[in-house]
Specification:
The structure holds 2 protein chains of 2 kinds. Chain A is of the alpha+beta class. Chain A has 11 helices and 10 strands. Chain B is globular, with a radius of gyration of 26 Å. Classes of the chains: A alpha+beta, B alpha/beta. At the A-B interface, strand 1, strand 2, strand 3, helix 8 and helix 9 of A face strand 4, helix 6 and helix 7 of B.
Chain lengths: 335, 561
């Protein structure tokens, strides 16, 4: 059995199927060549090297690793609770300490699994020759958004669905939520529908399908989805707090940064709508409250020349004028 | 550029304030957990490197024998040595032995990193490159002063052995990374030549501080701390005597190596103001140091005549140098009275020109400079020609440019084309000797250009030479702006632009350009107004020239700068 198949088998044994895995993120490790050991280094030999990883950034996590040895340190921003399994099979989970740090020694396979405190898998990682590899885990089924958008007349939404072909479950779920929230209504005779008593037809099948899908999710899937969303909301809140420290002086770049934050918030909003359909989401709401307070404050103080006004954010602003992440072209009311 | 979240090492928060949050709940939480934010220790400063997609913030700290930290590459070690050479040229006085400060190379350790692409920074390779130069100089200055650096400053620039600050690569990327990793850093010191580039990338919380010389950076960074150190030193009589001696020594012999006199000027002023019960001779030494620094800085020196008997107590070579400074101050700043210092100087020059030491020749040069603005310009012209030949005869190459410049300038001002031709020929001959190099020959070129343009304002070769000098950004500002003045209308826009940015020397040359234009148009009122304005910039030479009956046209020709 190849190493990759062995990994998949081990994950399967933990209830994680291949379709729950996100994109592979490979982080080249410096100093892993044979001459590196001979080279006097900038860092003490015991120093762990930081991994810069979008997969971990999105979840508010940080990993430091010793490229030549087996030490791994996982840290959560804001000391949020989590646990790490060094190795996959029969490995005991080691909970993070009060500061949100977990130190483990990796087995020879170099594999590890990061989970929420309740055991929901978040990220699997392993060492390959010269690289640390990470894959996010989405422990719920990805919604079939392409099927739902086949008949929609909303061309923008159609294009969005085309883009998510092969994407991970988080991206697909977010798009499902967008279908439920942001689809442009189809042209229809509203008066005739009301007169004929066909009130259910006022909402199109495209908008309803994601909601039906969410209601059918089992408890484990909704829990996994909510925990993923909560992690992302916490990380977003942190990034919003950092925004004024990190915003570029280049207005085009600053607008890009702001737009990315707005899209991240809208991803979470889309998932929130589906979680509500599934009858959960209180934890997410509580987490978003803090992030949104920061978001509103920033939006009010944002330099006028920073612009985030794409089609998605335009629809957000039209649908909910109080959403701070809506298009900057609209003078929305945030309170 | 899309940045990933920065990684901040746990040790970074204990090493200094740089990576702490600026304010808000996150700062409160951190203070509750870790106590008050630490300030940098003596010799501590943060510095940046960039490699591919990674920007790393490092902690430069005072080295200790056997200390750990990064391995320093060859180029970085060279920067460290340059910093040690540059520092004595930039500091008002050396507060402690450089040898002690240099005993151990600095310890450089990792604070934080940020990347624009997924990956892991290579923190185990030796750190290299010249861009730590200014940070190393400031770290060394902090050790020598025994004063901490402020925690809101980062420097990213090279420094050469003369203290000149130069540009670094990847500055935009470094600034982008810095703002993400170190929210408490609010001032970034860069080379003046990279000011625009830096301001393009700096956000609202980061102020770009452009400098051209390490002394400027030290001045900016240690402003208040320097005062405190000087005041504290005054409490100890032995230390006070040492420092007084250091200031005086710098004033007498330091002009060749010192590039920026502002810190010396301020340091001596502080000592004069804050140290009580100074003996008259010690006070005069400090006043003299202050005056020399002020004259070099902005022609504002005001040293009086020395106390009775003090001058005679000095060894003759030193006495000659002190008097040369006083004579030059009299010419430049109008004080002390020319007659009194001239008498002092003449008493010391009791031997023939060919028997003179370089110090004696410099005193003769200072006297000739005074003669040039006190109604004896022709005598000054002859003296400067003789002095140039005397310096050349003893191969004192580094002293040649000054009398030769004066020779060429005065030859033009006094309409002596044959003398000017001799100066040009002399200059051309010296260029082939090998020892006559650096900025000196460029100063002479400026004098030749202005001399020729005084003889013939349309002289195409001279105009071309002036144009080249005006546009050469490697030259000191005062040379470029003076060349712009002599280009007339052609140079006016450059002068106007620089003057509007607050450059005093550019403004002075703009006034001179106004004077030239008024004379060309025959507008006496405007010419007199320009001379009045010029006297505001340089009371010394203008007052001298007016006192000896010079007309506005004479002042335009004989004005020495």
């Amino acid at each position: 059995m190849s190493m990759h198949h062995q990994l998949l088998a081990d994950l399967q044994a933990l209830g994680i199927s291949a379709d729950m895995l996100g994109e592979v993120e490979s982080l080249p490790m410096p100093g892993s060549g044979p001459h590196a050991a001979l080279q006097a280094g900038a860092a003490p030999a015991t120093m762990l090297l930081p991994a810069h990883s979008p997969v971990l950034d999105a979840l508010g996590l940080r990993v430091e690793i010793d490229p030549s040895g087996g030490q791994l340190r996982v840290i959560s921003r804001g000391a949020v609770a989590f646990q790490v399994r060094a190795g996959l099979r029969d490995a005991l989970a080691q909970a993070a300490d009060e500061a949100g740090i977990s130190r483990v020694m990796l087995p020879q396979t170099g594999r590890f699994l990061i989970e929420t405190a309740s055991g929901m898998p978040l990220v699997v990682g392993w060492k390959e020759t010269g690289a640390l590899v990470l894959q996010a885990i989405y422990a719920w089924p990805g919604p079939p958004v392409e099927e739902w958008t086949v008949n929609t007349q909303d061309t923008w939404m159609h294009a969005q669905a085309d883009h998510v072909a092969g994407a991970d479950a988080w991206t697909r779920t977010s798009l499902a939520g967008q279908l439920a929230r942001l689809c442009e209504p189809e042209v229809r005779d509203v008066a005739a529908l009301i007169a004929s008593g066909r009130l259910q037809d006022l909402v199109s099948a495209v908008e309803l399908a994601p909601r039906h899908w969410a209601r059918r999710l089992d408890a484990a899937a909704t829990q996994a989805l909510e925990q993923q969303a909560v992690r992302r909301a916490e990380a977003l809140g942190d990034d919003l707090t950092d925004l004024f420290d990190t915003l570029s002086a280049d207005m085009a770049e600053a607008s890009g940064s702001w737009a990315r934050l707005c899209h991240r918030r809208d991803d979470i909003e889309s998932v929130r709508v589906l979680l509500r359909e599934a009858g959960v989401g209180d934890t997410l709401d509580a987490t978003l409250e803090t992030a949104d307070r920061t978001g509103r404050a920033i939006r009010i103080n944002l330099d006028a020349s920073i612009s985030a006004a794409d089609e998605r954010l335009r629809r957000v602003a039209l649908g909910d004028p109080s959403a701070w992440w809506g298009s900057t072209d609209f003078q929305a009311h945030y309170f | 550029m899309v940045w990933l979240r920065p990684h901040v090492a746990d040790d970074a928060l204990a090493a200094g304030p740089w990576c702490w949050p600026r304010d808000g709940e996150r700062l409160d939480a951190l203070v509750a957990r870790r106590g008050e934010r630490p300030e940098p220790g003596v010799g501590s400063i943060a510095a940046l490197t960039v490699q591919d997609e990674t920007v790393v913030l490092w902690h430069v700290a005072r080295g200790r024998p056997g200390g750990s930290g990064a391995t320093l590459g060859r180029s970085l070690r060279a920067s460290w040595r340059d910093a040690a050479i540059a520092l004595p040229r930039a500091l008002p006085v050396l507060w402690s032995s450089m040898q002690t400060a240099m005993a151990a190379t600095p310890t450089i350790s990792y604070l934080a990193s940020v990347r624009s692409a997924p990956g892991m920074p290579d923190l185990r390779s030796p750190i290299d490159g010249p861009s730590f130069g200014l940070a190393l100089t400031l770290s060394l200055a902090s050790i020598v002063f025994d004063a901490t650096l402020p925690g809101d400053v980062v420097a990213s620039a090279t420094v050469d052995g003369s203290g000149n600050v130069g540009p670094v690569g990847g500055l935009g990327q470094k600034i982008g990374g810095l703002q993400r990793m170190a929210p408490r850093v609010t001032r970034l010191i860069v080379a003046a030549s990279q000011r625009d580039e830096a301001e393009l990338h700096a956000g609202p919380h980061l102020r770009v501080v452009p400098v051209t010389h390490a002394a400027e950076a030290i001045d900016i960074v240690f402003a208040d701390r320097l005062s405190q150190v000087i005041v504290a030193a005054g409490e100890n009589p032995q230390r006070r005597d040492q420092l007084t001696e250091s200031f005086f020594r710098l004033a007498v012999v330091g002009s060749d190596s010192l590039v920026d006199w502002a810190p010396v000027m301020r340091g001596a002023r502080l000592a004069l103001d804050r140290w009580n019960e100074l003996a008259p001779e010690a006070r005069y030494r400090l006043e003299f140091a202050h005056a020399v620094a002020a004259r070099h800085h902005d022609n504002s020196g005001r040293a009086g005549m020395p106390p009775e008997g003090w001058l005679q107590s000095l060894p003759r070579p030193l006495r000659v140098q002190v008097v040369a400074h006083l004579v030059q101050q009299s010419a430049d700043a109008g004080h002390p009275e020319p007659e009194r210092v001239e008498a002092l100087g003449n008493r010391l020059l009791d031997h023939a020109l060919e028997d003179s030491s370089p110090a004696d020749l410099r005193l003769r040069g200072a006297l000739a400079r005074l003669h040039a603005v006190t109604g004896r310009a022709l005598a000054a012209l002859l003296a400067q020609e003789a002095l140039a030949r005397a310096f050349a005869a003893i191969y004192a190459d580094s002293d040649l440019a000054y009398p030769l410049s004066e020779w060429a300038r005065l030859a033009g001002a006094l309409s002596e084309p044959t003398s000017l031709a001799r100066a040009q020929e002399f200059h051309a001959r010296l260029l082939g000797t090998g020892g006559y190099r650096g900025l000196g020959p460029r100063f002479v070129e400026l004098a030749i250009a202005r001399g020729r343009l005084l003889l013939d304002p349309a002289d195409p070769e001279a105009r071309d030479l002036a144009r080249q000098l005006a546009m050469d950004e490697a030259l000191p500002d005062h040379v470029r702006w003076c060349a712009s003045r002599w280009l007339g209308a052609e140079g006016r826009s450059a002068l106007t632009a620089e003057a509007s940015r607050g450059h005093r020397l550019a403004s002075r040359n703009l006034v001179l350009a106004d004077l030239d234009e008024a004379l060309r148009m025959g507008d006496d009122i405007a010419a007199n107004a320009a001379v009045d304005a010029l006297q505001g910039y340089d009371p010394g030479p203008v007052a001298h020239l007016r006192r000896c009956g010079a007309t506005t046209a004479d002042i335009a020709r004989l004005y020495p700068y």
